[in-house]
Amino acid sequence: MQCCILVFALNEECERIPEILSHSWVNNYRLEGVFGRETNKHKIKARVTLKADYDHVTRHKLEKLITRVESEYRRAAFQAAEVDIQSEEAFEIARKGMPRAKLAGAQIVYGCKVKHFNLPFFALQVQSVGETDVFLRCFIHEIGVSLGTTASCIRLQRRSLGPFHPDHALLEKQISLQNIIRNMELCRRIMKSLKEDDEVIDENSVPYEEVRSVIDGLDMQTDQEYDAMRPVWPRNYT
Fold first, then answer.
1. Distances in Å between the alpha carbon of 134 and those of 52, 75, 140, 141?
2. What distances in angstroms separate CA 34 from CA 51, 63, 102, 158, one per listed residue?
3. Which residues pair with 123 in a beta bridge?
4. Residue 155: which of 124, 114, 176, 182 has the closest Cα?
5. Which residues of the chain are in CATH 3.30.2350.10 domains?
6. Residue 55: CA atoms inside 13 Å, Cβ hemisphere, count?
7. What positions does the domain Pseudouridine synthase II N-terminal occupy (predicted)?
8. CB atoms < 10 A from the CB of 165, how many?
9. Which end of the chain has less Cβ packing within 10 Å, N or C?
10. Model pTM score
11. pLDDT of 70-126, one tens digit each?
């Protein structure tokens, strides 16, 4: 994964990691791909193993495919939540939103939108749960195959992790003891603000003023442009 939002636990809070994972939070990604090219094991930086024509691919065809994919995953979401899709329970959950997965390891795509299309390049916004970078890279590949060509992922960004968004993250230049303490307090307030209804997906941002207190403490403005995804250590990708 090239860059992402990361959540850390310190000291005794590490014991809460299994509890946090059990929430099956929905994560938001931006996936960028290129049609007509397939790489070894679908890795981002790997040798090209196959090339194919892609001139027949249009944005309309891509969006039509995405609609079908969302429909299939919607059905899978109820199965992963162990809810009969024909039941009244399913109706009540659907009225509120999408069901939260209860099966461990379930990989579900809750939403997908085309954000950019300029052949051979395209970008998708994907909301998913239980995903891995391998799953997401293969997802891009399957999109290409389903459109009669092939595709490979060239960039992968996690824009949010459950209720945690870029505005809640610290940049490398902001790492200091004071800022870490302020950020820990913000994260605690975010966790306390979560709704109790675990059956329905609802990972909205906390109120703006919660974020504002930390942004002000860092002497930054919310409209400043910055890379909130860059990890604070170098990483190698193979």
1. 22, 22, 10, 11
2. 11, 16, 34, 19
3. 32, 116
4. 124
5. 27-161
6. 1
7. 5-129
8. 19
9. C
10. 0.75
11. 989 888 888 888 888 888 888 888 777 778 777 767 888 989 999 999 999 999 999
